[in-house]
Every structure is written in structure tokens, then in C-alpha cells.
Amino acid sequence: MSKEIIINHTSHETRVAVMEGGVLSELHHEREKMKRVVDNIYKGKVLNVLPGMESAFVDIGAERAAFLHIDDILPEHEILGETSKINGDKQQIGQLIQEGQDVLVQVSKGPIGTKGARITNHVSIPGRNLVYLPTTQTLGVSRQISIDKERDRLKEIVNRLRPENSGFIIRTVAEGHTEEDLHSDINYLVSIWEDVLEKYRTLP
To answer: Please, which residues bridge with residue 67 across strands?
Structure first.
């Protein structure tokens, strides 16, 4: 049986139709505004917790509920920086979140077809030279920076300046930049995160 894929793109949305033997078998559409949600941070509300799937569905104000897997979940007190991030025994999803709970999430993958967006508690905030990881203690350097001496210099600076219990990824463009440049980027990214937390705590 012959299969044909038809794509119709407008300024507002993209539609994809799959035809099999001249008969419509699948139809998908994606609104332009939803393509831009990746990396956006939301205050969501847990709609359903599914222990069997180790996942939950969260309302983030989109047409379809967003999907949150247990691997992408952190306890709220860790997200808000109220305790350090300590690895322990793996918890059940019901121990991490409950229906009706507010959650701070970031979109990691946009909605596709009938599926909602994929979301995570592991927030990342990109800057000019660095990517801020406020919920982890990771410190990484782009592989594109190949000179060991420069990698060590950048890691030493960022490790010394970063806030306690937070992580950073040093981007390729950071190569050759001064401590002042990196310090400025850290302060800027931390201020963004503090603003996010303030809005999360105060907005309904």
C-alpha cells in the first residue's frame, strides 16, 4: 500500500497528514506558539500521578497536559534550595509529588501530535558563557575546548565563584574569557533564577 505524507505550513501552525492508499491514516498539527515553549519555565499543577508508569501529568496552561517522568523529578525542597542535593535510595513517585501539588518545571521537549510537552524539574538557564544548573552540583566544560590548561583554568574560576549546591556547564564561547566576564555571567544567571523562585513562591 502506498504511503504519502502531506505537510501544510502557515504562519500559525503546521499540519502533517499521513495518507495510506489515498485514505487519511494520521493527522498531526502543531501551533507555532507551542514550538517556542522548549526551555520555558512554568508553575504547574499536578493533575494525575501514575505509579505504574512512574510519571505524572501536569497542567502548565497548554492545550494538553505535560508529561513528567520520575527521572525528571526533584523534591520541592531541593528545587527551592532549602536543602543540599544528596543522592540516596530511589524514591517512589508518590513520595515525590502528589495530585494537586504546585511544581516548578521546565519544558524539555515540545508537544508532538496528540502528546503534550515533556517537562523536568532539572532546570537549566543558558547565558553567554555558561549554562546555570541550579538544581545540581554538576560542573562541566564543553568538549570543544580542547586545551587542558584552559579547561582547568575555567573550571577553577567557576568552581570558586559558583553558589553552594549549584552547577554550571562552561560553554565553548567562554574560552579565553576573563574571571570578570565569568563572574558577571554567574551573577546574571543567579539573578534570573532568584527571580524565577520569587515568582513561583508568590504567584497563584
So the answer is: 57, 118
Instruction: Please tell me the pTM assigned to this model.
Output: 0.76
pLDDT per residue over 28-68, tens digit each? 655 555 557 899 999 999 999 999 999 999 999 998 999 99
Same domain, 42 and 115: yes
Residue 88, number of CB atoms within 10 A of its CB = 5
Strand order in the sheet with 13-20: 3-9, 13-20, 23-31
Same domain, 115 and 149: no
Q: Rounded to an integer, what distance in angstroms lies between the CA atom of residue 139 and that of residue 157?
A: 11
Query: What is d(CA 86, CA 118) in angstroms, rounded to the nearest whole number?
Result: 25
Which of 120, 145, 177 is a domain's end point? 120
Strands 130-133 and 55-59: unpaired
Assess whether 48 and 113 both reside in one domain. Answer: yes
In terms of domains, do 113 and 175 share one?
no
